[in-house]
Amino acid sequence: MRTWTGSFIILLLLPIFVILVFATSSEIQKVQGFHEVLDENLQIKEVHLPQTSYIKAGNGQVISEIHQPVNRVYLSSDNISAFLKDLFITAEDRHFYDHAGFDIAAIGRALAINIQSDDIEQGASTITQQLARNVFLNHEQSYNRKLSEILYAYELERKFSKKEILELYINAIYFQNGAYGIEAASRLYFQKRTEELSKSQLAFLAAIPNNPSFYDPVKHFGRTKKRQERLIDQLKEEKLLSKENAETIKSESISLQMKQRIDLYPDYVTYVEAELRELISKKEGYHKKLSFADDQKKAELNAQLDERIASLMGQGIIIETALNPALQEKAKSSLEKRLPYKDVEGAAAVIDNASHEIAAIAGGKNYKKYDFNRAFQAYRQPGSAIKPLLVYAPYIERTNASLQDQVDAGTFCKDGYCPQNYGGARYGMVSLERAFIHSYNTTAVRLLDSIGIEIGFKDLSQFGFKMVTKKDHVLSAAVGGFSYGMTPLELTSAYSVFANEGYYRPARTIRKVTNLEGELLYSWDDPFVQIWSSKTTNKLRQLMAKTVQSGTARKASLPNGYAGGKTGTTNGYKDYWFIGLTGQYTAGVWVGKDNPGTLASIQSQAPQLLIWQDIMSE
């Protein structure tokens, strides 16, 4: 009874609506008033359909497809074949070019059937109504929704041409299995662009949207094929296909070639997405606002930033990165090979010296997307790997010391702090070079004390270590004693200063962000900062080369070209580090346990050095 009443009301309302829309010239003012009401309540200026976004490697290869919220590749009307347009118009709305968004005759027929069955069996939706439902409404079966659909459809017809409406419709409709629009469907089911499909394949895809779950070609291929043949027969009946052509199209064999979503290099992509957030935050002013906000305001700003990023992703963007797939594979495979121990993890980062771009990131063994990424999320004590940055470069910069200058490696105590050398060994006066390549702790602490703790940290602060605080400004920092420490990526990025004559710029994965038409949206413009002179960094390069040749990093040696770096081991053998550089790359490797524990049993194997060597060898 309720359905009959609703149908009766619609029968009464529709003529009134039609009269309002198509009023005579004497009622023009009333029609304009009606249009003004529509414009005020249904503000349709532009229709933006969410599209797929992409992340690309340095060689242009797509490494990640981001469907937020849907998988859609927009296709312009000029790239949609007349055959496909005929298919949809014939199947869904034969009076498409004649109506104003709704078909009165079809609605009347549908109402009669619905009243007879006391249910909503037929909707009589035009292509424009279906577009309105897909873009502005939902798929609820109710008369209230149907009335809203008609109003939206009428407004769409006022604002857009038939060509534009059909284009939007073919891009908006759902083709099951996550594909929206004909181009995404073509790539999903056949791994081809729409323009490459045969008429038989086009008709097969056109069969799906009428009832996507019922005509799911993966689960119900036979149903889809039968509907495809019905669509071809309809074109034949409308004299849009000859009998011979129709039979030829129907007889063509259809074979699905399902495409898997591209989602490669999860370690790297996870960081790219985190860096994108940082890039947008800085470019759009969120970063500055967050730095002055209280906790409640920070939560609000972060929510706004999340919405902004989701909106951009939905518009369809291309994130071009510096990923070197070969180096990425090397880093990943080496972690698996060199760390066969169940509870021992590792991370690595590789930076191109010339471009200051991150070429590879390994976040852990068997890393899965959005897992804890140790390369940029694990803050660990750096051990002696901090010495070149906090001690030796600041000391040489201010004293112009020679590598053969004698320094004291003897016992040191100050304010109750008495550092020990490895194994408790004691030394006297040694050269600066020897103290560095054998990593004497007493010398490092004494050098930092001689120039002043704040001087060392003044230089260190320019590298932007996020978790280094005022509490860390103590002598024990000279040998890696920090409250939180730093990440492998942070430490590797800082070491790139030694490959660039004392100039530093943060290493980035993202080269630029564009829309799908290639227009630039965002890019980094970090300035170069000179932290030390080239004379100082050249001396550090010599010290690091000696460390690889005859010091604590001998297992990292390479057969050709320059190789230099610094090892680091924390108290209790909980962390093993090696950060080093060649002529082309700076790479950092960390080995440890997620819950810090001793690694003494594998110390002699020096896996951090072997991983670095694997990555950097040709």
UniProtKB/TrEMBL annotation:
Highest taxon listed in the record's lineage: Bacteria
Localization of this protein: Cell membrane
One annotated GO biological process: cell wall organization
Domain Penicillin-binding protein transpeptidase as annotated: residue spans: 346-583
A GO term for molecular function: penicillin binding
InterPro entries, alphabetized: Beta-lactam/transpept-like (IPR012338), Glyco_trans_51 (IPR001264), Glycosyltr_51/Transpeptidase (IPR050396), Lysozyme-like_dom_sf (IPR023346), PBP_transglycosylase (IPR036950), PCN-bd_Tpept (IPR001460)
Record's keyword annotation contains Iron: no
Catalysed reactions listed for this entry: Preferential cleavage: (Ac)2-L-Lys-D-Ala-|-D-Ala. Also transpeptidation of peptidyl-alanyl moieties that are N-acyl substituents of D-alanine; [GlcNAc-(1->4)-Mur2Ac(oyl-L-Ala-gamma-D-Glu-L-Lys-D-Ala-D-Ala)](n)-di-trans,octa-cis-undecaprenyl diphosphate + beta-D-GlcNAc-(1->4)-Mur2Ac(oyl-L-Ala-gamma-D-Glu-L-Lys-D-Ala-D-Ala)-di-trans,octa-cis-undecaprenyl diphosphate = [GlcNAc-(1->4)-Mur2Ac(oyl-L-Ala-gamma-D-Glu-L-Lys-D-Ala-D-Ala)](n+1)-di-trans,octa-cis-undecaprenyl diphosphate + di-trans,octa-cis-undecaprenyl diphosphate + H(+)
Coiled coil: 218-252
Main location: membrane
GO terms for cellular component: outer membrane-bounded periplasmic space; plasma membrane
Residue stretches making up the Glycosyl transferase family domain: 60-235
Entry keyword Protease: yes
Keywords on record: Carboxypeptidase, Cell membrane, Cell shape, Cell wall biogenesis/degradation, Coiled coil, Glycosyltransferase, Hydrolase, Membrane, Multifunctional enzyme, Peptidoglycan synthesis, Protease, Transferase
Family: In the C-terminal section; belongs to the transpeptidase family. In the N-terminal section; belongs to the glycosyltransferase 51 family.
Protein name (database record): Penicillin-binding protein 1A
